[in-house]
Amino acid sequence: AEWSLDSRKVMYLDKTPGDAWEIDIASKEKRCVTEHVKFPEGEGICRAHYMSDSNYLFTAGTRPKAYLHIMDKSLTKQPVKFDLKVNEGPAVSRNSLRVVYTPNKDDIYLVEFAYKDGVPVIKSKEKIIDKDSVYIDGEKMTGWGIEPQNFRPPHDEELLFSFYGCNWTDLFGYNLKTKKFTNYSKADKIYDEAEGVFHDGKYSCVERGPRNTQIEVYALKLDGSTEVTRMTHFTDVEGFKASNPVVSDNGRYIAFQESTKDLPMGFGLAIYLLDIPASGLIPEYSTTKAVPVQTGTTPAEQ
Fold it and tell me: Is the pTM of this model over 0.90?
């Protein structure tokens, strides 16, 4: 799942690779946003995101070999494909045309897009992290792979990423200005994969559990305390799990998947919404009203 910038729609895939769909949360109306897209047999959308200008950013191709594409929000044009191979999902800025991705889980790149005569082009590209250069206080962090997840709101000055094999899996931050790393998980023998970040940057959702087949949605506080709050209880039923949570920009909902332990990571059976303030699970948000995220809208309209 992925939230639209105005927090009114959720975008999701019907399969991987497949088509991207949007559902309007208020009306429950659905539409396929890629039915006009022509892909070779066996290829399709693998990840779907909104860019800061409301155009669509996809990884498309096959699951092991997908490339970045940008598609116009008018839904009248074919996506523009870039020679940027992506392993799993990218991190997409909500404030600029910057995207972070890994082609191989060894290196992480930052690419900035621009438009020339209305056509998206690459403005710049640089490698910002490799998995063998992650040090904290002089100590090298080790693991078998890294994957970007989110720019941390509200200023996009930090990149949140997963380091697989480091304490099983930990959530790390990389400050794009100071070039310093932070391990926010520090959870020994716990799977703690970075997922959607909260709208104010104070927490990140994580898939957390003793292994990746027994995960729940937790909120991990991004203050160095390693404090976590459990948000779901799907594993209380044998064989089930909750995964892939993303937070709406107005701070109201977490959209997440129901899944089962026998399904591959990232695959789901249904999408649920968790009302953050109404749940009371995180006291500081229990009385928080959804804030407008688009000029001219009100909390009531949101």
Answer: yes
